[in-house]
């Protein structure tokens, strides 16, 4: 089958997200100007550079109580900082709660039964007991084609790693089984890994 996105696909559900899988999930924590914490997952997410370490995530869509975007982007615009928390399989239910479109004054940490902790290098909450958290200073917010599509880029200024996730000096994802996003409403758990050496190693 072939289709042009502008003409529609004719299927029961949009297949686009299912083509880009699995996608890591950035559980992004921020704080608004009144000090209310926000926590929301974004699966258009990845690292973009090693030195200095940099990350990006994309936000799409609008909330009625924000000015042309969602709480996360609005908070980052105001504060200039954010924290990306790694989602483990054991936290999937809490992560799902945080997908709810709560009013902007609602603390998703509280609603999901989670505990916020202070970051070390930025004025922002992070998720206590997450397998890892990356404290970030925003470097740019780029509006891309389409209504309310924003790509947020940040430089990582501090990294927290849970001690039980470190095995022989390696951050071992099998110790916590990362949650990954597939298409539609589908997810996957990373619990099987293998090593593949490059031909020129």
CATH class: Mainly Beta
Q: What global shape is seen?
A: globular
Which CATH architecture is right? Roll
CATH superfamily: Electron Transport, Fmn-binding Protein, Chain A
- The number of helical segments is 4
Tally of separate domains = 1
Structural class: mainly beta
Radius of gyration: 18 Å
> Which residues sit in consecutive blocks of at least 5 with pLDDT less than 50?
none
> What is the fold-level CATH name, i.e. the topology?
Pnp Oxidase, Chain A
Q: What share of residues is helical? A: 10-25%
How many E strands? 14
* Sequence of strands across the biggest β-sheet: 3-2-6-9-10-5-4
First-residue to last-residue Cα separation: 40 Å
Please outline the major beta sheet. 7 strands, antiparallel
Strand content: 35-45%
The arrangement of helices and strands along the chain is HEEEEEHEHHEEEEEEEE
- The overall pLDDT, averaged over residues, is 96
What attributes characterize this protein structure?
201 residues; mainly beta; Pnp Oxidase, Chain A; 7-stranded antiparallel sheet; 3-stranded antiparallel sheet; 14 strands; 36% strand; FMN binding; oxidoreductase activity, acting on the CH-NH group of donors, NAD or NADP as acceptor; Flavin_Rdtase-like_dom
General description of the model:
The chain has 201 residues and is mostly beta strands. It has one domain (5-189): Pnp Oxidase, Chain A, CATH 2.30.110.10. 11% of the residues lie in helices and 36% in strands. It contains 4 helices and 14 strands. The strands form 4 sheets. Strands 3-2-6-9-10-5-4 form a 7-stranded antiparallel β-sheet, covered by helices on one side. The protein has a 3-stranded antiparallel β-sheet with strand order 1-13-14, with no helix packed on it. A hairpin with a 4-residue loop joins β9 (132-144) and β10 (149-161). It is globular. The model has no long low-confidence stretch (mean pLDDT 96). This is Flavin reductase like domain protein. Residues 18-173 form the Flavin reductase like domain. One of its GO terms (molecular function) is FMN binding. InterPro entries: Flavin_Rdtase-like_dom, Split_barrel_FMN-bd.
């Amino acid at each position: 089958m072939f289709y042009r996105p502008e003409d529609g696909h004719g299927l029961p559900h949009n297949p686009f997200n299912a083509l880009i899988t699995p996608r890591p999930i950035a559980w992004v924590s921020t704080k608004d100007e009144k000090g209310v914490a926000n926590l929301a997952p974004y699966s258009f997410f990845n690292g973009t550079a090693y030195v200095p370490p940099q990350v990006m995530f994309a936000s799409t869509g609008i909330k009625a109580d924000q000015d042309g975007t969602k709480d996360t982007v609005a908070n980052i615009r105001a504060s200039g900082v954010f924290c990306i928390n790694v989602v483990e399989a054991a936290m999937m239910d809490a992560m799902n709660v945080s997908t709810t479109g709560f009013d902007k004054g609602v603390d998703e940490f509280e609603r999901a039964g989670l505990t916020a902790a202070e970051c070390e290098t930025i004025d922002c909450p992070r998720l206590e007991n997450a397998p890892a958290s990356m404290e970030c200073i925003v470097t740019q917010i780029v509006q891309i084609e389409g209504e309310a599509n924003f790509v947020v880029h940040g430089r990582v200024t501090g990294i927290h790693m849970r001690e039980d996730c470190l095995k022989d000096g390696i951050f071992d994802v099998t110790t916590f089984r990362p949650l990954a996003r597939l298409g539609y409403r589908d997810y996957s758990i990373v619990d099987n890994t293998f090593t593949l050496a490059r031909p020129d190693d």
